[in-house]
Write a structure and sequence with these properties.
This protein has 273 residues and is mainly alpha-helical. Helices cover 69% and strands 4% of the residues. The longest helix has 24 residues. It is elongated, with a radius of gyration of 24 Å.
């Protein structure tokens, strides 16, 4: 089957930020050029075809990526949809498939770089945080929505385990939208090395959703053994003050009870684990 791209009518625009879009375009043009040269210089037909195919896909993504419905090349078929929350994950999937094709063409270093850039793109776009926002805005309040948000939170923890954010990145996430803040809390839950008491206390005092509030307090429990006496006192006072805002949310009452119990188990001067 010959390469084909099916496009809907309308304005064309790329899916990436301008710097990333330019980089994708440059890589795509380079791969197409390398494939063209390989036609005349090598007998590796499969590798040459892979270079041409992957290069064509990269160029298409840079130019009209977020409007592409289907990309087909022989056995390779990739479907892209316009749902914003899913777009980043699908681009990463495409990049990993492209990296596999590059490896088959003997371009192992290029394949490694494409995979690394794909992971960075996934982190930068905060796709998991975007899924969280979509869940909160589209699903009715209830147990099913909470479970879906918990799954998004767990995915964000897995992402932080593979590629932990820096303290600077964490601070930017906490200043961002609701999805970015949840991504930051998931990283703090998973990675003790990026936890910051003052920032976490700020979330507990100025929360945006009961879900966010619960997880911020849950992280605080893990931090209590390492807190100073002053920090424990401040946390205890904050939690006691916040109780009036719990309403009928038993989960937050329970986590507040656990915080106060943990503070009693680790009195002033006890910095053990």
């Amino acid at each position: 089957m010959e390469p084909g791209i099916q496009l809907p009518p309308g304005k064309w625009r790329g899916p990436f930020s301008r710097p990333v879009e330019l980089a994708v375009l440059v890589v795509g043009v380079g791969l197409v050029a390398a494939g063209a040269v390989a036609v005349f210089t090598t007998s590796n037909d499969a590798g040459t075809a892979a270079l041409l195919a992957v290069g064509t896909v990269f160029v298409a993504l840079a130019i009209v990526g977020d409007r592409i419905q289907t990309i087909k090349y022989r056995e390779l078929e990739i479907m892209l949809v316009e749902r914003h929350a899913e777009l980043a994950g699908r681009r990463v999937e495409l990049a990993f498939r492209a990296a596999t094709a590059l490896e088959s063409a003997g371009k192992t270093e290029e394949a490694t770089r494409v995979r690394e850039e794909a992971l960075e793109e996934l982190q930068e776009l905060r796709s998991i945080g975007m899924n969280y926002v979509a869940t909160r805005s589209t699903m009715p309040s209830g147990w099913e929505r909470t479970m879906k948000m918990e799954r998004d939170f767990d995915k964000a923890r897995q992402q932080a385990r593979m590629k932990p954010p820096s303290h600077e990145q964490l601070e930017r996430l906490l200043r961002g939208d609701d999805g970015e803040r949840i991504t930051a809390l998931a990283a703090m839950k998973e990675r003790p090395d990026v936890r910051d008491f003052d920032r976490l206390l700020g979330v507990i005092q100025d929360w945006r959703s009961p879900f966010e509030h619960y997880h911020a307090m849950d992280i605080a429990i893990d931090m209590i053994p390492q807190l100073t006496a002053e920090q424990k006192d401040e946390l205890g006072r904050t939690v006691q003050s916040e109780r009036r805002r719990f309403g009928g949310d038993r989960s937050r009452y329970n986590v507040a009870d656990r915080i106060e119990s943990a503070i009693r188990r680790h009195p002033a001067g006890d910095l053990g684990s």
